[in-house]
Amino acid sequence: MDVFKISFALICVSGLFLVKPSLAQNSAKDYLNAHNAARKMVGVGPLFWDRKLAAYAQSYANKRMRDCKLVLSGGPYDENLAWSSDRSLTGAGAVKLWVSKKRFYNYRSNKCVGDQSCLAYTQVVWRRSKKLGCARVKCTNGGTFVICSYSPRGNISSQRPY
User: What superkingdom does the record give (predicted)?
Assistant: First the structure.
């Protein structure tokens, strides 16, 4: 009996080394924390998770699962999209990618610098947006697709994000 207990314990402990710890960073909290950290840096209030937006994002992500193409949905919400050719892109990583576009935003002119795009960043920090819903899927081509939807809409050309 004691040999059985010791063997079972060794199997359990060795199993812990085979299981990769999950640092997925794909939960609603992870998406919110990443967004709200960027918003706080420019003095904008936090976003709140919205199940309806998350369901919309999930529905659209499921449609992109076959090809992982970055095509805007044309739906009722503003959205940010990210894609990676491998499966390592997390939801928090996608937000970090969008926030990295801050360097291309010129607040004084309220424009993106040069030919660079900064609209993903300005949507993350858009003052009037209050709700957020995101989704992430692993694509059949081996990639990862991430979408975040925002309400109310942002990136109104005549307005500043903050």
Answer: Eukaryota
